[in-house]
Amino acid sequence: MTEKIGVLGKQPQRRTGVERVVNAPLPTVYGKFQAIGYLDHDRGDEQVALVHGDLGSDRVLTRLHSECLTGDAFGSQHCECGDQLAAALRAVVAEGAGVVVYLRGHEGRGIGLLAKLRAMALQAEGLDTVEANLALGLPVDARDYAVAAGMLKDLGVRSVRLMSNNPRKREALVRHGVEVDEQVPLLIEPCESNITYLRTKRERLDHHLPHLDAVGHLS
C-alpha cells in the first residue's frame, strides 16, 4: 500500500520553532514549580521552563540558564553554574513568581560536553577558557537564544528582569523580541578553583562581575 505524502506528491513541510509538549508539577527543595516541557523543532533539543507562581506579562523575573552537567549535577567548582542555578530558583520563589529557562544544548557555551572537558583539560595546562576553545578550533560562544525567546513568548512574557551577568543574553533576547527592563546581577562568591575562570569571563567575555574587585589572590 502506497503511503500518501501530501498534495502533488510533495513531502509535508518540516515543523520549525518551539512547541509546548507537557506541563507537570515539580516540587523541589526550593519550592513548587511547574515544569513546562518544549520541543525545539529547529535543533531537536528538549527544553524545560521552570515556572513559579503567576508570571504575568511584564517585568517577569527570569533566568536563562545554560546547561552545565559538571556544575549543575556534580557540583563542580571550576565554574559558578550550579550555584547560579540554585540562586535563581531561590530568587523566583522569594519573588513569588518567575521562570528559569533551562537551556539544553548549551553545554560548554554551546560546544558540547566532551569538547568542554577537553577545554577544561587545556585550562588545567594554563590556557584560559577563551584560549582553550580556540585551541580546539571551536567558537568561544556558540549559544543561540531563539528558543528561549520562543518559550517566554509562549508563556505570555513580554518583558523580563533578567538574572544574568552576561550582556549577550540581554542583547539576544531583545533581538528575538523580548524586552529586558532590567538586568539583575547573579553574583556568586568565587573560590580558588574558579577565580581565574571568572576573571577571564569579565575581562574577555564582558561579563559584569564587580564583586571580583574585592577579591584578592586566592591560594
TrEMBL record:
<feature type="binding site">
    <location>
        <position position="129"/>
    </location>
    <ligand>
        <name>GTP</name>
    </ligand>
</feature>
<dbReference type="InterPro" id="IPR036144">
    <property type="entry name" value="RibA-like_sf"/>
</dbReference>
<dbReference type="InterPro" id="IPR032677">
    <property type="entry name" value="GTP_cyclohydro_II"/>
</dbReference>
<keyword id="KW-0862">Zinc</keyword>
<keyword id="KW-0547">Nucleotide-binding</keyword>
<dbReference type="Pfam" id="PF00925">
    <property type="entry name" value="GTP_cyclohydro2"/>
</dbReference>
<dbReference type="InterPro" id="IPR000926">
    <property type="entry name" value="RibA"/>
</dbReference>
<feature type="binding site">
    <location>
        <position position="84"/>
    </location>
    <ligand>
        <name>GTP</name>
    </ligand>
</feature>
<feature type="active site" description="Nucleophile">
    <location>
        <position position="143"/>
    </location>
</feature>
<feature type="binding site">
    <location>
        <position position="164"/>
    </location>
    <ligand>
        <name>GTP</name>
    </ligand>
</feature>
<keyword id="KW-0686">Riboflavin biosynthesis</keyword>
<protein>
    <recommendedName>
        <fullName>GTP cyclohydrolase-2</fullName>
        <ecNumber>3.5.4.25</ecNumber>
    </recommendedName>
</protein>
<feature type="binding site">
    <location>
        <position position="79"/>
    </location>
    <ligand>
        <name>Zn(2+)</name>
    </ligand>
</feature>
<keyword id="KW-0342">GTP-binding</keyword>
<feature type="active site" description="Proton acceptor">
    <location>
        <position position="141"/>
    </location>
</feature>
<keyword id="KW-0479">Metal-binding</keyword>
<feature type="domain" description="GTP cyclohydrolase II">
    <location>
        <begin position="19"/>
        <end position="185"/>
    </location>
</feature>
<feature type="binding site">
    <location>
        <position position="169"/>
    </location>
    <ligand>
        <name>GTP</name>
    </ligand>
</feature>
<comment type="function">
    <text>Catalyzes the conversion of GTP to 2,5-diamino-6-ribosylamino-4(3H)-pyrimidinone 5'-phosphate (DARP), formate and pyrophosphate.</text>
</comment>
<feature type="binding site">
    <location>
        <begin position="63"/>
        <end position="67"/>
    </location>
    <ligand>
        <name>GTP</name>
    </ligand>
</feature>
<dbReference type="GO" id="GO:0003935">
    <property type="term" value="F:GTP cyclohydrolase II activity"/>
</dbReference>
<comment type="pathway">
    <text>Cofactor biosynthesis; riboflavin biosynthesis; 5-amino-6-(D-ribitylamino)uracil from GTP: step 1/4.</text>
</comment>
<feature type="binding site">
    <location>
        <begin position="107"/>
        <end position="109"/>
    </location>
    <ligand>
        <name>GTP</name>
    </ligand>
</feature>
<comment type="similarity">
    <text>Belongs to the GTP cyclohydrolase II family.</text>
</comment>
<feature type="binding site">
    <location>
        <position position="81"/>
    </location>
    <ligand>
        <name>Zn(2+)</name>
    </ligand>
</feature>
<feature type="binding site">
    <location>
        <position position="68"/>
    </location>
    <ligand>
        <name>Zn(2+)</name>
    </ligand>
</feature>
<keyword id="KW-0378">Hydrolase</keyword>
